[in-house]
């Protein structure tokens, strides 16, 4: 293998740049030529591909977003689109790919590999942490800290006014951000897609709060079965029927995707990037380079996409115990 | 004057604790007894009043929220409510008040002073910066920095996806937060209540963006004449009719009220708190202690409430010039 | 077991408060009475022990430092001191202890258990991450992020002036903070106690830096074999003999011990605290509750103190590969 | 005037990039051609000058350091050096300059203007705030917040161990950073070059601290008349002679020069940059564009350099009153 390319795809996450940097520099360190593909599969189809050098990734390890940009490509879902993409790679002489992204990215990479035999190793880049085959995904730690920092701020004003706050964090299918930011902020309740939400229990609990509680924080993952934070707040309000209690809702939104990556995300991203290049050179194709139990692990794309990654049970217990 | 009391009222703002600390310690330094009234006028009516000592305000200068809590009191709007409040103060022997808050707080204080002759000096505690008689209000600088930090994060993800983001910041009647966070973040447009928003100009501009612009940020004060950020986004989207352009909206919400105060807010809060106590001792009643042109200025409550505080014209020009 | 006590000892670390909170609330949740011992072993000897309630630990999960304070006790190193400590615990009816700290704390706890048979479970509270039996220690993640944030700032000014900066981070015997902050900041070199530092290689490398490198960052753990950052800088300067190159040194110092704990530290601290109480109730004495591979693990104090925790080899490789 | 150039010189400060951006975009908005001179006067002499476009300053408003780099030039102090610099400017057709920097920068600009008649307007870029003609300098607010954030962290660990901390902040000739970070952090004492430091008073005070004080923070400007923080700590330690008291010292160093600029610094920098270009076009030569009392003010370089900027007296009083 002499030439490889790297791209970022799907929703961006903090640490993607650190990962791109690691891929580029490891490749050059190993004597490879390396290219950057812009806007993911879209750029692969449109031949938006540029040679990258050591200095191309200078001063980006600490930056949010992705210098390679990201996009969702509908054309790549068609055989014609993928054919075009393949022709472009071939024209450049690119023999291997590093794909940084999540579920959708890996699904595309798997099909692409099966159709054209082009080796791909993935890196888990998503804030949601919902990828099997790695303890944490790149961007998750930053997103949790951003959410936590926001909740800390809201706790200040909630306490000043004795209010009940419903805070919606990201997580359409996975409650990881909600659970860790909930534990970290000392939230009274956390509502996640993985478990059935019992609003009556919440209502009962809010009615019986000890007097020394000056405020309540309820963290809601956007994909909760009872609806969005706003919907849930209104349901709870209706059930509590206490005009003295003040309810507020905040949806944290896209701030959770940006920001300078944390130390943990930069180290994880760097290590996954290095491992992806090493994996390509060792013949590990159509799999993802993740970190489990502090070691690099290569997991076939099929498992990354298909297997479920459960919440840590102790974490749910922590919320119950510590919010008394 | 031997005994004074301090309270916080209305929406809380970062730096209120630093102000309370300054009032308490300056009072003690000057040989006064000092009391804290909890939950603003509500606590004054309910006699929720406690003696404060030097150590009562230890380790709070850096904290958001207010240890004295805040509330909005409907009872204080009635003569009966105010009578009760006065009786409580009298029973404690309290001869002077420091009121930390905004418009509503000062309106109440003015009436209270007129009815019962109890000296009150105010400190401008609100994130909105919409109080005449001080260059900046306590909490404004922190709120702007919080908004800015959030917009910086959103810029990362906006740039990664070439998106157009509408970001709503606080400011029902005043555009100060929008303008300063807009300049600071390099926003393409800022929409504020003080000026008529011209959506057609925005649409025209967004259509003709130079190619090197990878994203657009539009900061909207919540009180803009064209509606909320979401409403405005939908109007713009309808007018642009370009399916390739991606539009997103984020409402920053209550994170803008919390957080550790910035250096500027802590210094301002400390100075206003000291000046309020000195003002009481010098016979300056029914006025607010603010800082203008680096000097302490006492402004009658009537002016603080009644006079308009205009945006800085240069700031509006900056947004126009620098977003090219 | 009906009554337990918790204390913090040795150098403080961010997250200790979150751990104290978890111990107190888990204990109460499980029906125990719980006490706080102030200033570690010193307070145990001086009987500085207070009952703790659910609300005693409200609003501390996000705070640096330790509300129980910490101290190093010389008296506890004597049999008489330990006897006094034991008598005080006995008088309170305290039957179990949770000790939050590092090496020294656990050494004391081990002897105390051996002499008086009082059950103790430890929680790993130290920024250095040098405790065997847990993947990470409480406070390490915060310390790394603080160091990283400082190095990011220094990189700004280093780049503006094309300077070579030597930055000393904490770590007398362990290079974990240096390595992770080095990877995270894209440092050119990292010098740690665990490996022999080759200054000639550094000098050679600095002389041959590619032209596009605008600055160099060298992270030095305080316990490096070649001396402090200042000593090393002077050695390198003497060897390079290039008057055009500007060398600077910064010692980050105690900022690394403070600050609001990160999400990771709050979650880790909470989980260790809960596990410590559960361990006591399950009869796990004279051991530490740590997290390895995402699971709670109880490790005998002897192993925590005696066994070495090696650096992750991949991390050293990352610094080499990625600084080209 | 058709062509102007901008450069940064002397010690860098956060916000310089925002200022460069404002100069470049205002110039283009006004129909001018604009050039960037790299490494200050050094680059002027070495002809390191490049045309700048709107996109040249994209995405830098939030960055610390300076994309134009900075340097101190000895050659520019010679008539020959300045001659070379002038010839280079002339060759490019550059008719006006914006100089971003402090005392030294303006001294050079003044001589250069006197010798060659080339119009120069300055912008006050230095963290020290020691420039007459502007209420605040660009970078000061960020430096104070960085210092404050560090002191907040140290306060955590100081309180946990009941320690006395001496913290050295930047300020060789001016105590502005020390005073504002001292007020903001609730420091017990602040020592600055502008006033004589009375160590005996400090010693007396430290001996008599009330029992509820758990720690003491003493902020020392690097240029204090009694020496560095370390020297002062040792003097105080010798005088106190209390082995129980623990003394520690931390020198914050270069972290104060870096970091993303605060909102205030970005707005100030943007406004000064715009005003500098407008000043050039209006024929305001050899002066600095600063902001006083919220208005743009142009002050002749001679005054900026020669007149003293005093500390705010109220600020010194605040430290005395509020540390009781």
TrEMBL record, chains A, B, C, D:
Assembly notes: Homotetramer.
Primary enzyme class: transferase
Regulation: Allosterically activated by ADP and other diphosphonucleosides, and allosterically inhibited by phosphoenolpyruvate.
Catalysis performed (reactions): beta-D-fructose 6-phosphate + ATP = beta-D-fructose 1,6-bisphosphate + ADP + H(+)
Keyword Protein transport attached: no
Protein name (Swiss-Prot/TrEMBL): ATP-dependent 6-phosphofructokinase
Protein keywords: Allosteric enzyme, ATP-binding, Cytoplasm, Glycolysis, Kinase, Magnesium, Metal-binding, Nucleotide-binding, Transferase
Pathway(s) annotated for this protein in UniProt: Carbohydrate degradation; glycolysis; D-glyceraldehyde 3-phosphate and glycerone phosphate from D-glucose: step 3/4
EC number(s) on file: 2.7.1.11
Active site location: 128 (proton acceptor)
Gene name linked to the record: pfkA
Predominant location category: cytoplasm
Chain residues that bind substrate: 126-128, 163, 170-172, 222, 248, 254-257
């Amino acid at each position: 293998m002499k030439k490889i390319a790297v791209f970022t795809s799907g929703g961006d996450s903090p640490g993607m740049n650190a990962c791109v940097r690691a891929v580029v520099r490891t490749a050059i360190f190993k004597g490879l030529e390396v290219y950057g593909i812009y806007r993911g599969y879209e750029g692969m189809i449109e031949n938006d591909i540029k040679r990258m050098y050591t200095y191309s990734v200078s001063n980006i390890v600490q930056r949010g977003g992705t210098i390679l940009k990201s996009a969702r490509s509908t054309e790549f879902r068609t055989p014609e689109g993928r054919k075009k993409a393949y022709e472009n790679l071939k024209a450049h002489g690119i023999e291997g790919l590093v794909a940084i992204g999540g579920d959708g990215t890996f699904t595309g990479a798997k099909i692409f590999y099966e159709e054209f035999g082009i080796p791909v190793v993935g890196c888990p880049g998503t804030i949601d942490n919902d990828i099997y085959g790695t303890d944490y995904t790149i961007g998750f730690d930053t997103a949790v800290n951003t959410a936590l920092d926001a909740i800390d701020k809201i706790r200040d004003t909630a306490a000043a006014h004795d209010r009940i706050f419903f805070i919606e964090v990201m997580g359409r299918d996975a409650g990881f951000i909600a659970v860790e930011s909930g534990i970290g902020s000392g939230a009274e309740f956390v509502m996640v897609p993985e478990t059935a939400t019992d609003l009556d229990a919440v209502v009962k609990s809010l009615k019986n709060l000890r007097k020394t509680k000056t405020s309540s924080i309820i963290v809601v993952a956007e994909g909760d079965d009872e609806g969005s934070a706003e919907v849930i707040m209104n349901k709870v309000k209706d059930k509590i029927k206490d005009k003295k209690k003040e309810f507020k809702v905040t949806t944290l939104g896209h701030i959770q995707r940006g920001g300078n990556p944390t130390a943990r995300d930069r180290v994880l991203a760097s290590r996954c990037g290095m491992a992806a290049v090493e994996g390509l050179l060792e013949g590990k194709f159509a799999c993802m380079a993740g970190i489990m139990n502090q070691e690099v692990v290569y997991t076939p794309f099929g498992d990354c996409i298909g297997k479920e990654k459960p919440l840590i049970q102790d974490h749910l217990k922590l919320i119950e115990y510590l919010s008394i």
